[in-house]
Design a protein that fits this description.
Blueprint: E1 9-16, H1 22-37, E2 41-44, E3 47-52, H2 55-67, E4 74-81, H3 82-86, E5 90-92, E6 95-97
Antiparallel strand pairs: 1-3, 1-4, 2-3, 5-6
Protein name: CRISPR-associated endoribonuclease Cas2
Enzyme class: hydrolase
InterPro entries: CRISPR_associated_Cas2 (IPR021127), Virulence_VapD/CRISPR_Cas2 (IPR019199)
Length: 109
């Protein structure tokens, strides 16, 4: 099956974790470090994203995030297609920014 903008997915993980105590800060930091180790990149302070070449690949990473969810806080996981991601408009103040580049895909015939 050929890769295209409708089959390639982006996973967005957004969270709001408590950080009032030292223990809560440690838990939040551990969660953040764990998703970074799984290949997610920071998009905004509490929004991380990861490019996946297929639904199956996305399901693996979603399962990994679900396995490390902290006991407290609000966490959202959303998948969007590469086409939808490409339609996003980003701004830094009033200046338009370019979207993060899509990782290169190797296609074998």
């Amino acid at each position: 099956m050929r890769l295209n903008q409708y089959r390639i997915l982006w996973i967005l993980v957004f969270f709001d974790l408590p950080t009032e105590t030292k223990k809560e800060r440690q838990i939040a930091s551990k969660f953040r470090k764990s998703i970074l180790q799984d290949g997610f990149s920071m998009f905004q302070f509490s929004i991380y994203l990861r490019h996946c070449s297929s639904r199956e690949n996305a399901d693996v990473h979603i399962k990994r995030v679900k396995n490390i969810l902290p006991a407290k806080g609000h966490i959202g996981i959303m998948t969007i297609t590469d086409k939808q991601f490409g339609m996003m408009e980003l701004f830094h103040g009033k200046t338009e920014k370019t979207l993060p580049s899509t990782p290169q895909q190797l296609e074998l015939f």
